[in-house]
Structure formats: structure tokens, C-alpha cells
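Forwarding the complex inputs:
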Amino acid sequence: MKLFQFKIQYSLTAFLLGALLLGSCKKTLEVLPEDKLDHTMVYNNLADADAVVLGIYGQFAALGDRYILLNELRADLVDVTINADPYLQQLSNHDVKEDNPYADPTPFYKIIFNCNDAMKNFKIMADKGKLSQAEFAQRYSDIAVLRAWLYLQLGIQYGAVPYITEPIETVKDIPLLNNTPKMSFDQLIDQLITDTKDLPYLEYYAYPDGSSLNFTVDASSTRKIFITKPHVLGELYLWKGDYYQAAYWYKRILSAEDLNSNIGLLYNNNRMGWYDGADANIQVSFSRGQEGGSLINSVTEGWRSIFALPNTNRHWFTEWNWSIPYSNSYAPGNPFVDLVSKAGGYKIKPAQNAIDLWNSQTNINGIPWDARGRLSYQETVPGQPVISKLIDNSVAPLSLLNKAGQWNIYRAATAHLRFAEAANRDGQGRVAYALLNNGIKTTFYYGAFTSGGTLAPASFFELESEITHQGFGSDRTTYPTSSPYYFDARDNDKIVRGVWYRNIGVRGRAMMPALDLPGITYGTGTVNGYGRVMTGFDVDPVLLEDKIIEEDALEMAFEGERWSDLTRIARRRNDNAFLADKVYEKLLKAGNPKAGEVRAKLMNRDNWYLPFKL
Amino acid sequence: MFLNYHNTNKMMRNSIKNRLPVCIFLFCMIVSTTCVFGQSGSKNSKRATSTTTAFSVKGKVIDSRNGLPVTGARITYGKSVAKITDTLGGFQLSVDSRDAVLEVSMDGYTTKTVPAWFHKSMTIVIYPSDYHSFYEKTNTVFGDNGILKTAGALEKKDLDAWEQNSETLDSYLQGKFAGVSVVRKSGTPSIGASVLIRNFNSLYTNNQPLYIVDGVVYNSEIHSSSITSGHENNPLQNIDIRDIQDITILKDAVSTAIYGAKAANGVVVVNTNHAKELATRIDLQLSTGYNQAPKKMPMMDAYSYRSYLNDVLATSSYSGDAIAAMPFNNDNPNYSGYHTYHNNTDWQKEVLKSSIDKNLFLRVMGGDNIAKYALSVGYNNEKGIIDNTSQDKYTARFNGDMRLTNRLTAQTNISMGYGLQKLKDQGLASITNPIFLSLIKSPFLYMKEKAADGSISPNYADADYFGFSNPLQILHNGLNNKKSYRFLGSVVFDYQLNNYFNLTNLTAVTYDKAQEDFFVPKKGVSKDTINNMEVYSRLGAQVARYYSISNDLRLRFNKYLGNENNLEAIGGFRYRKNDAEQDYAMGFNAATDQLVSIGNATAESRVFGGHIGKWVNMTGYALANLTLRNKYILNASVGVDGSSRFGTLAEKSLKIADRPYGVFPAVGFSWIMSNENFLKESDLINVLKLRINYGLVGNDDIGNYNARKNYISQNLLGVQGLVREGAANPYLKWETVEKLNAGLDLALFQERLNLSVDAYQHHTKNMLVYNPGNSLSGIKNYLFNNGSMKNTGIDLNVSGRLIDRSIKWDAGLTLGTYSNKMTSLPETVYIEYAGATYITQMNEAANSFYGFKFAGVYSTQVEADAAGLGILDIAGNKLPFQAGDAKFIDKNGDEIIDNNDRYILGSPIPELFGGINQSVAYKNWKLNALFTYSYGNEVYNYTRSQLEAGDNFYNQTELMRNRWKADGQITNVPRVSYGDPIGNSRFSDRWIEDGSYLRLRQLSLEYNIKVDKQIVKYIRVYGTANNLFTLSKYLGYDPEFAASTDVFKQGSDVTLEPIFKSYQFGIRIGL
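Prediction (whole assembly, two chains):
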């Protein structure tokens, strides 16, 4: 019996001990996933940080169609087709209901959620020495500015929005977010400026040469996939009304390659220059000077190719500053094929208003239209114009079976026109005029011409007039080199060439004449009365601004800038009619019976904003 | 103390419930420790016969079959008194307690425990062990091993399933157990069934019961979907039901709580055959079967179809000239395509074909004093009724029992299953489902190519003018092959420590693998656009595997406490590690239709995917069963369950070493009234027992990693980046089902009539439901444990022997009914499946059909105008209904038919379901009949909604001849309209049908041939008819189907292989 007792007690003890041992072994129940990553396996090294940046941009790529729809369909250059669903019609008619999926802010916040998570963890990584200061600065600033851009978009579309900068850790945080107060658009702009202006890395290129985030994949380069930070700062200051700062930041883009020893980049990158080589030319051009029918309307050359070339093409590279490539082989694929093409849904089309605007222009050769229209949309079936700008592709035509192409966001022309907008409001109308029209040289040159009208500076003094300056003729003051308004366009192949010597202005590149505005006076050149030099510039800034905004339409229609351009100016001028009239005109021309109603609505600023569905 | 009971809820509302598990745990611990330290006194606790008064008992034992006395039956009382009945069946003995219970046993008969009578002579009728009785023993882990001595709701059946094949364990449960609803998924061999024990207790997690086979949790969950559409790889197919000795269903909390977080859906305990005798026994079965193609759906013939087709074309964008120029409208016999388009093909006849099965099963049992074994092998060649589909299934099982020492025994259970299945796509696969294609395919086409002169080519025809696939190409040139394997091996050691304790350890390993590949040829199949690519031929391969290892260590205690009191207690610890993985590759566009393996897909078209899931469970459990004076039974059980799936911050959990554990306590009380003195000598009532129990059980099917904070892959072009996988939910925990069960068992007329009734309420708490997220989180919705629902119901089981003379007639009825109600739900859930909408909302049953009410057809334009109803087009303009359109009821009276006009149209949950079992034996003949029924459930006939929609070029049923054609025509079938812009064929009660049925599920007749027992033990020949007739108003092939076990896919007939009639003929030989 004793033996039994011993056995029992021994066994029981062993049994309980065994149970406890296994039970207390915490690790036994700790099973990490293998087809996804446990949070402890992320943010441990540079490769993790890079993967997070790429993941965020991967998510961002899916915003393309929403961005275009919200910014173009609500404005005056894009209209619905008969195929448009009621939700698109709501956008066009400014009658958006809360259940409208296009008006759902969730996709923006979904990316913001990941930005917040990344920023918090990048800081931790830097603190723990898992990222060097430089690696941290680049990645943190990149994601911070991308987040600021997302919030700026939210502000433009929704007015007041909650500003959330902390990551969501657990599902219990989700309902709490409903109590986040909304920040007014003005407050938001201030907040965004505060949160971005002192970021540790605000260079033109998000990642410097040699960074692990610069590589080529699927025939696309990542170089310009990441946001152009100075562009966002410039835009924030434009909204804020701090025009000098806006000009300063846009100038950072324009002069990004001022020191590059690669001449192709030095003279072409963001310079809005002339015909550079026969391999591709991104200007408006005609094979036979004055014959409209000879317009180079091609996805591989001419102005249209800007939107069609691959991002590894050198001309593409000089024009674009921020663009997200799509690949047919990987999600999400180009969303514009479904939206605009005839093979796809053909849900939106160029507004009659936009077509009329192009057709009311006269080309430098007297051709009675602005060629950029015909290069932005195609009308193979009469009455059914298709926005080709969004689906042009020089590698292979886009179709439902080839959803490659790009979501092109910011380019040289955008930066030029925005810079002009800022300079004009900053009292530097002539610089603005120069970039808008036919370039620095033609606007600022004071000196001799040949009998054929070619610039022929006779002295260093005359040559130096090709540097931007205030004043006219010999009574001029050159901007200091530190000024954002300093542009050196000196052009003498024997002596000196300023980095801007190729600049021909936005209109110049489109073969459009310089605008003849009241307040501008001209005289002749310094020799024999040849040529024409500007002798006075006193243009009403509001008038010039009108022209800049009109040029925005001609140059950048369908690119997703229009709604913000119109609302920014209307706010600046406190003139709601500026926006309301333009949208009214679009609807009126489209025969939309709601045109008047919409105009009345837009006269009230509260109606500019989409309903914010929590 | 290592227990730290975690309760963040400051309210003391739940304090009693919270203490309950602790109390039960303590109770079990105290019981165990008392036993340990009570050992010293054990020698004094012998039954003190000499010190108390002796009562004299006498009686006789009678055989139920012939009413004759039984000689040699054992009458035992306790461990010290045993008598054998004399030649007259009589016995006499004395007992020392007024509450004494005698045990009467005899080989081949169910052992009975009856209260001793003192005032008159006892008459004890014993029944052969195949008779359903409350005295049956059960072999589950639970206490006493007898149905009578538990407070739980359990039901047991002994199996002798030789006469049936083409059944799997899950489908075999149908109609046999009260409250167990079994819906066979389809007619495909081994596809299995959806088994709900007392309805589903969860919306989004597993709702199928836990299967315990020979003491081991048999993983029956489907971890990886099949790459064949409409198919599921049923893990239960690897158990041959002829290997099963008995099945016990545990429905309540107290009998299942030791399975903790896996017990919410009830438990099916299965024991396989072990050798009982030492003599060698060989059983051999050979059978063959005939599967009968189902009755065809009445589709239109070529003439009617062409008329219909031209009507639909006329409403499309084709011009009249274009339609007239279409090849099928060219009736010139000299036209080269004349013979291609002038046939009258019965496509159903070509696809649905009768077939022949073959089966073989051999079992050898025997052994000696030391070791016994049971070895069985089976081969089944089973076919469905889709032509060119089949299954070859091989099973093998070796069950061994070893007596290693007097105290130590060992048992091994080793089984292997291998199945090779040739399948075809089913369900929602309009391009590749041959049954669906056989219905919609134009009858004027021919299955093979025809030349201009009408001669027939041996090649099957290509896809047709409208791009519809040729089902015969899929049948004969397509492949959907599956090879599945499962190995389950377990070893049990049992050590008898002393008279009261034994220690058992069970180790088991499961390895399961399913390999699949498919090929859809280019020729004859509609092309498609997938992933921005034109797709001609389709190829795929998949490997799904599952591995688990488990160990269960258990200490059992059993002791007579004196004064007719007994205590049993068990404590144990279970560990289980699981590992599931799925890897698939899909590709498209092989160079030719002869290159069928995945490597031949074009490189850029290949897509890879799969998942890896691992999880670990650790469970401590205890139970106790206290019997007082043979009348009052107190059961308590508790499971303390830890899982790698639970979130570390799970609320209301037990925290051990920072990990949360779910505590699942249950208590039960039972009163055997028939053992009371005032009732025990009743001639009428043999058993009267009341049971009540209450407890908690859980469901841990919450996803392997959902409680963790994870990062998932997000591509940017072809590079992979990382993003957060939503917000983490470290609060994620098991669902809890609170089960209350009250039951009554009654046996009358010397057990000629047995009746069990149970009423129950299941209250699922912490149910996983989707909560609405918000824009600011970027999260649309997330799972959280904040839903709840209730199931209340009644189970009834009546069985008895109606005639007990030379003819024996046993009859049984099972009946279940329940109602379901959502009691907490963050928002109303609408689920879209196969064009149907299911609604789940507060205070209503989950998962009801939600759609429009159809009230006929507008006969005239005047009538349509007068009604004034219309729909809004995408631009928001009202489109009025016209003559010939469907009348839908305008629920809100706004004259616009839109989503606000939807009604609840019915529920797939039946009002009553169950089975009726009849068994008649006469001399050497034995006849068994099983009827199953379902009453009051609605089903959605998706297939018919495609065949009577009148909106495309599919062939339609003959009903479409009555389509509205002219103003004034009175009919119930709306006009045809290509694309159906006005929505006449929308989801409405037109497609909802009564799913009630009564079916003769199985009828079998067996004849036992007289043989010389020296040579052959027996030879039996038998015939079985399955699904012989079905009484139903259902218009589809068959009213029983389940696309999966998912709650939200119930009741939708999505064109699966129908359940068909089959006949088997076989012979059994015993050596």
C-alpha cells in the first residue's frame, strides 16, 4: 500500500508539474505567421524601411482615378458621358450624396494610416541606430510630405478634415477616431506648412544617387516615383498666400539641376526648352509650317509624347517631376483605361468648354487653334472625344488587355505656371510673364538684333540683359543670384550660356504667341531699329493671373490640377463667381439643365466641399 | 497561486459566472486531492455488508426477443455480490441498501442497471445490444460511460453499416440523431455534408461539430479550398464507415466542456472497431452499385428555343437583318452550316449518365491474451452521375490492443486513406460547369462537329456562335483530378496505478495531403478575360497539406464511496500543434490542348498563391461525476483552453504567464426518478430521468493570426513592399456559447417505448461580427467579439419495438426544431451570393432571403400604366414598367421599385427536420428503411433563375413558352428582354421555393443464407436502394444541397451535381 501511495503521489506530482511546465511555457503559444510578417520582423533594418516606403507608394498608385475624377470632373474641363453612373453625374453636377463612393475619403486615410505608422517607426529605428541619420531623414521626409499632399488633397476636396498623425495600433482606436475634431482648411494649411517646412530632407530628388530606393524595375525607373517635396511646399505656400516662399520652393524645382555636369539635364531639366534632338521632341510642332493637318500628333514625338513616353526616356525625364508608372502585369493597373477609353467604360470626356477654349486660340503661324487640344484628346468618332492624355503610351497602346502607362502628376509646365502664379502675386509680373509666354530671353533682352530679328548682343552689358532683372534698358537691376527670380538665360556659345538659355516659355513650347497684354510696351533693339525689346511692364496682376489660369487649362487640362487651381484663385480673390462661372459655362455648353442651379450652389463656398463621410 | 483571474470589467454583473469556472476547477482539484490523501482510509471503505441490514431481492431475467427466461445472465451488486440466473432465469440475492442497483449483463445483450425491488419479484427484460436503450454504454471520455449516469444530452448509435456505401461519416449521420441537421452538399461521391448540431452557433467561424475518433480530435475542417469549382476536399472521406463501431453525439455543455474552445458546435465521438474476441474472424464484402441519372429538367427543344432566341435577339442591339442572317436562321439545306445548326440535342442526356460502382471490403480480427488486432482494408470505386467522373478510394486501418503487463495496456489506431477523384467544375462556373452548360446549351447544336454534307466528325464541337462552351469538351478533354491522402496514427498507453487511479497518455499524428490539378481545354470552351489577358485554355495545380501532432495526458479516478455513492473524476492536459499549408499555381494558354500540365502555361500568365497557417492549443481539463444513492447525479466539467490564436489582451480571460486562457465550466444535475422507491416498482415506467445542465463552451476558429499586428505584402510594380494589415486586434478571443439544456428520458412497457425530449437554449456571446470602421482609420470594417445570438429548440427522439414476435418491427423517429435570433449585431448584414441577397438583422433569424415580391405580369399596357410603377435608371430617370414586365410589390408606395421594396422571403433554416427509421426482421430476412425529412425551409433556385430569366441566349425551361408575347396575354412569365434593363428577373420570390421534402433515404433488404457454420460463419446477400423517392415540390433536380458549410451559402441551389438514386447489390461472407 505504501508503495502504491508513493506511486500515486509521485505520478500526480509529475502530472501536475508536466502540465504546469508546458502551460507556463509562454513561447509554446507564441506562433508567428509565415505568409505575412509579424510586427517584430519589420523595421529592423534599411531593407525593411525601404519596403515600407515602397508599400506606401504601392497603395498610393491606386488613388489615380479618384484624383483625376475629383479634380477634373468637378471643374470645368471634363464632363460625363452617357455611360457615366449616377455617382459620376453627382460629381459633375455638384450634388454629391454621402454614399457616393468617389466621395469616400477612406482611400486617402488608408494611406495616411500607413504613413503615420511608418513615420513613428522610422523615428524609433533612427533612435535605435537601425537607420543612419541620412537614411532616416530621406525616408521620413518623403513619407511626411506624401502625407501632407494627401491632407492637402483632403482639404481641397472636403474643406475641414480631421488631422491624424498618430498610427492606429489596435481596433479599439478605430471608434475613438470618430471624436477627432475637424481642422478648418486654413488651419490645415498652416499645420501642414509647420509640419513640412523643417523636415530634414527637402531636396528635389527624394533619394540621392546611390540610394537603395533608386532602381529600375519592370522597365520603369523609381527615380521620380517619390513625391517632389519642393512642389508640395510651393503649393502649400500658394494656398497660404505667402508668394515669396511659394516662388522660392518652385524655383527649387526649376533649378534642381543647375549644377549638373550632364548637359542634357543641366539645360533641359525643367527648363521648358526648345527642340533638343531628333530622337524625340516634346514641343508642339508641324511638319509643314502653316498647315494644321501636318501637326505631329504622335505618342512617340512632339508635345503629345510627353504623356506617352516611358519614364526611362530622357525627354520624359526632363519634363516630369512626379509620376507613378503602372504595369499591366501587376495590380492595380492603369485605372484610366476603364475610365476614359472607348474600349473601357468611356465614362468621362473632355468638356465642350475645354474644346472650345483650345479652338478659340490662334497659333503662332496663324493656325486657328491651339494644338495642345488635339494632342490632349482624340475624336475618331465625331461627337465622342476621348481624353487621350491619360491613356497615351508610346511602348504599346493601352487597352483593357494592356493597363500599363502612368499616372503623371507633376511636371515642368506645372512648376513653371505655379511659379508664375506666385511671382505675379509677389510683384514680379514680368518674370511670371516670361515663363508663361516665350521665355526669359525674349522678355528681358535689351540689345541688338540682326535684320532677321535674331538676338545679337553687342556687348557684355547687352548679353547680361538676358539675366532676369528689374527695370528696363540700361536702367536695370539684375536680381541677386540668391533670389528665386534670378534666371540666367545668357546665350553665347563662345562666352557663356546661362542654364536658362534654352527656355522658351510655356506658350513658346506650344507654338503659341506671347500674350499681348495692356500695360506692356515695346521699343526696338539697340541697333538699326531691328527687333523688339520690352520697355515697360505694368500689367494688372489680376489680369495676368487670369491668363496664367487660362494657360493652366490649355497646358494641363485633364491632369488633375483644375479644381484646385479654380478654388485657390476664387479663395484668394474672395470671388466665388470665379469658380462658379467657369463650372456654369461647362454645364451650359453641355446643355445640362442644372447649370444655373449649380452656379448658384457654387456661389456658396460651403458647397465647394464634398460631404465627409466618417 | 498561478491563477490570476483577469477581469477588466468593473461591473460585478458577471461575478457569479466568473466565479463558476473557478469553483468548478477547485471542485475538481479538491476531488483529486481528497482522493490522493484519502487513500490511507480506503481500506476501511469496503462495502460494510455485515454491519447493516440485508434486504432480500429475487426476480427473473427475460429475453425481449421471445419472452423466455434467460439462463446464465449475471446479476451483480457492487463488487462483492454476483449471481448467475438459473434455468428458469431466476435469481435471488441480498443487498445492504434500499437504494441498491443491480447490474444485469449477458453477452450479446445491453447491460442494464436496475433498482432492486423488495416488495415483489423483479422481472428484468434484457435486449440484444443492437436495440436502442438508455442503458447503453458510451465510450467517450466522460465519466461513467453510461448514458443513464450522465446529466448531459447525448445520443448513441451502434453501427453495422455494412449494407451502405457511398457514405461518409458526416452524411451518414443524417436522420439518425435528434437535433442534428445534416444537409448533403451534393451527389458527388465523398463530398460530405453540412452537419449542424442544434443549428449554427456562429456566423463567421466554423459551425461544424468536433469529431473525436478513437479519442483523438479528427481535424475535419477544410483549411484549403479546392481549385475545382464547387468542390471541397472532405477530410471525413478517409474514414470508412464500415470501420465504425459506434457514434455518440454530445450536444450540451457539460459533456463537451473539456474540449473547451472547440466544443461550441457539439462533439461527434466515433469509435472504430477493435477485436473483442480472441477467435479469428474474417468478414468480406463485395458489392456493386448502379447510379441512376436524375430526371431531366424540362428544357425547351430546338424548335421552341429558336423561337425564344429570335425573340431575345429582337430586343438586343442586333438589327432585324443581322438576326435573319445568323446561321441558325438559315434554313436552306444547301447552306454549309445547315447541319451544324439543325439538330435537336438533349444535352442533359449527354452529360448526366448512369454509372456502376464497385466495392470491396475485408476485415480480419483476432488475437490472443496479450495482443488483439483488427485489420481492415477497403476499396471503393464510386461514381457520380456526371459522365466521366469517378472516385477510387482505398482505406486501411489497423487497430491493436496490447496487454503489456497486468497494469499497463497499450492501444494503437492506425488508419490510412487514399482517394483518387476525377471531378468536374460545379456550382457558379458558367463556362466550365458541365451540368449548367447542358441546361443552357442550345438544343439545335450537336455535340460533335458536322460537315456541310451532314457527316459527323469524331471531334467534339467548338464553343458555339454565342461563345457558350461545349460541355462534352469539358467532360472528355478537361481534367479536374484530385489525389488525397490522410494518415492518422495514435498510440494510447493506460496504466492502472491502483484500484482507483489510472493514467492514460494518448499521442496522435495526422498527416493530410491533397494534390489537385486541372485543365480546361481551349477548344470548345468560351474564352475569357482574366487579369487583363485573353484566356483560352486554363491550367492549374495545387498541393494542400495539413499536419498535426497531439498529446493527451489524463488521470482518471473512480471510487465507490459507500452508501450507494460513487465518484469519478478526470483531470488531463492536452496539447495540439497544427500546421496547414496550401500552394497553388494557375496559368493560361497552353500551346495545344494536349499540353495539360501547369508548366505549359505561358510564363507571363502564371499566378501563384497559397497560405501557411500554424496554430497551437493547450488545454487543461477536469471533470467529475458524483452519483448519490444511484439517483442523483452531479456532473461538473471544465476546460481551460489556451491557443496561439487568442489575442494577448483578450478580455475576461484567465491569464497564465501573460497568455490568455478561455475557461469553459459546466455543471449538470440529473435525477433518475425511476430509481426512487415510489417509482421503481412501477410496471409501466422503466426509466424516468430528468436532466438539466448549464455551461460554457467555445469556438476558437478565429483565424490563426488575426489577433496579431501584422504587415502584409503590397507591390509597387513588381517589387514588394510592406503595409500594415489593418489595425491589430489583440483583444480577439474565442466565441463563447452558453448552453442550457433540460431533458427528460422515459422508457415504458419494459423498454418497448423509449422517449427522449430535450429543450435547449444556446446563447452565443463574444460572437465575431464585422463592425463598421470609419474613414479616418481607412478601415471599412473589422472583426470584433461583440455580437451575440440565441438558438432555442427542442429535440425529440422516440423509438421502440412495435412488434416483437416472429416478426420484429422497430421504429424510431427523430425530430429537431429550433429558432435562431440575433441578439446583438453592430449593423445589419447583407450578403450577396449567386445573385441572392441574404439579410441578417437584430431580433430576426440570421441569413434570411431578402428580395422583391413578384405578383405576376402586367397583361396590358393599360394595366402597367395604371400601376404607375417604374425603376430609376443610372441617371435617376424613371423607367416605367411596360406590358409584359413583372409586377413587383411597391412596399413603400413611392412608385419606384428599388432596394427599399425588399421583403424577407424566407429562411433556409427548416422548421422541422429529422428522420424516421423502420427496421423489420423476419426469419432470415431483414428490412431497414430510413426516411429523412425537412419541413418549412425555403431555398433559392439559382439554376432556375438562370433558366427562366428570359434575358440572354441560354436555353430556357419549357415554362418560357408561356412568356408574355402580346398585349392582353395573361401569363405569369414576363416578356423576354435582352440584358433585362428593367430587372424582371431580379432576386424575387419567383426564385424562392419550398425546400421541404420527405425522402426514402435508404431501403435495404438482407437475406441470411443458411450455411454450414463449420465452414462459413455466415453468407448474407443484400440490396440497398438510396434516395429511392423524394416527395417535394421543388422544381430543381433535388431539394437537398449545400454549396459549403458557410452560413451564408445555405439554401442556394447553384447547379451542383444533384443527389441521385442509386442501388447496391452485395454479398457478405463471414469466415
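The first helix of chain B runs from residue 15 to 37.
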